[in-house]
C-alpha cells in the first residue's frame, strides 16, 4: 500500500515574527510545488494568523503546535479547535513530548484533543515516544502502544485513517541522536499492528506514521526508505529553508 508521505516542520517557540513570515513564504514558494508529498508547517501560535493569509491558495498545510479540546470557555492561554480552524489551520500537533514533559499533557487529554480536532475537520498529528530510560528498560513498545491507544480511543476507523501519528523517541529529539532506520521501522510496524488490532488491517494500512527526532537532509532518505515510515516531523532542520526544502524534495529522485 502506498501512502502519501507527509513532511511537517515544527518550529516550536522559535523565530521572530519577521523571520517566521519570511520562512513561511519561502516554504510556500519552494516546497508547495511537489505533487507527491504533503508539506505542513507548525509556526508558534501567534504567527498562525498572518502565515495562514500567506499560505492561502497553496497546498502547504498549517499546523498549530497544541490546542484545547473545548470549543470555547474559561481556559486562559489556550486555543480551541474552532478558533484554529477559523484561523486557517489544517492540522494540529498533539501530545508532543515537550508538552507531555513540561506542561502535564496526559494520554487522556491527547485522546480528547484528537476527538475534538476531528469534530472540526482538523487533522491531528499525534506524537508518541519513549524516554531513554524507558527504552533501556525494554518498555518502548508498551509505552508507545498505550500512548497510541489512548490517543485514538475516541476515533472512528475513517477518522483514524486520516490521523497522522508521529513516532518521536524522546532521546532523539533535539539531541542529534537519531533512531536507526531499523529501530524506527520496528516501532512503526508495532504501531501499525496495534492499529490493525484496534481497528482493522485496511484502516491501519491507511494511517501515515511519521518519524521524528533529529531528522535532517543527511538521514531522511534512509529513514523514509523503511516500509512503515511515511514522513517526518522535523524540529531543528525545519528552521531554515534550505534544509527544509531538501527534506521535502528528498523524494524527487526516490520512489518507495
Ligand atoms: P528535532 O525535533 O528535529 O529538532 O529533533 C523534532 C520534534 O520535536 O518534533
Describe this structure in words.
The chain has 256 residues and is an alpha/beta fold. The protein is built from 12 helices and 8 strands. Helix 1 runs parallel beside helix 2 (48-55), helix 5 runs parallel beside helix 7 (140-152) and helix 7 (140-152) crosses helix 9 (181-198). The N and C termini lie close together (10 Å). 2-phosphoglycolic acid binds next to strand 8. 2-phosphoglycolic acid (PGA) is lined by residues 10, 168, 173-174, 212-215, 233-237.
Name a few traits of the molecule:
alpha/beta, 256 residues, 8-stranded parallel β-barrel, binds 2-phosphoglycolic acid, TIM Barrel
Secondary structure blueprint with pairings:
Layout: E1 6-10, H1 17-31, E2 38-42, H2 48-55, E3 61-64, H3 81-87, E4 91-94, H4 97-102, H5 107-119, E5 123-128, H6 132-136, H7 140-152, H8 157-162, E6 164-167, H9 181-198, H10 201-206, E7 208-212, H11 220-224, E8 231-234, H12 241-249
The chain binds 2-phosphoglycolic acid.
2-phosphoglycolic acid is lined by residues 10, 168, 173-174, 212-215, 233-237.
Number of domains: 1
* Bound small molecules, deduplicated: 2-phosphoglycolic acid
Overall outline: globular
Helical amount: 40-55%
Strand order of the largest sheet: 1-2-3-4-5-6-7-8
Structural class: alpha/beta
Query: Any idea of the CATH topology?
Result: TIM Barrel
**Total helix count?**
12
CATH H level, superfamily name: Aldolase class I
Give the number of DSSP strands: 8
Strand content: 5-15%
